[in-house]
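Reagents: none. Just compute today. Methyltransferase FkbM domain-containing protein.
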Amino acid sequence: MKTKKLLNNISTTICLHETKRDKYVSGAYGDSISIWEEKQVTRILQLLIRHPHLHLIDIGANIGTYTMYAASLGRFVLAIDCFAPNIIRLRRSIQLMNLFNQVVLIQNAIFNHSGQSLRLSIDTRNIGGQRIHLLNNYSYKYNLSTKNPYIVKAITFNEVLPILNAYGIRSALMKIDIEGSEHFVMEKGNQVFDTLDIPFVQMEWTIVKQYINRVKLILDFFNKRNYDPMTDLCQILNQNEYSQWPDDIYWLKRNTPNFC
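Predicted 3D structure written out:
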């Protein structure tokens, strides 16, 4: 479907799941009058317009709301999603909008070990809500040859750096929404953050905040690199109260102008 215009003139095309199987993301689209996470997408577009040198890294792209709007604005997008039915729809949206040169799709889960086969949880009414099914001993021996979309192959985030380098990407915004696995981006993503200028990271906080070890890894990573956690109103969050933070938070690199 053709989407709602944001900021007066930016629209795109999105290929949806059946809403009975995807009540949140696909269900958010209503006859070009609403989209998924409109407020957050609009914020990303405003920042891209304000900072023309920035591109987008979309981790947990789902059916591609952020990816398609940013690409339609003319920016390069590295879109990562491990679920084949999402990638199929996103690829078709790219074809319909003729944005082949704007988007690179990666169909893998972000994890702390490359090459592992991981199993996703199944939610028959919320396709976007799959999570990596983590075993305590990290022993994964699932068979990828079954073509089961709920068995996915893992990479580390550092492995995407050669792709970004090949496309000449030096600066990017980042959106991370991978259902409680956000910490894996930081655990094996230091090379990307230390090579690129990433001034702003939008991160879903709903699930990951329930796991103190994951929270500590994320806080340590961003504190070491001089980021502050913010609300959508640019209020600095108290790191001792992480369990009370909102569902979406924003990591902003200190001394970065024109973001708040």
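The longest helix spans residues 84-97.
Action item: order primers for follow-up constructs.
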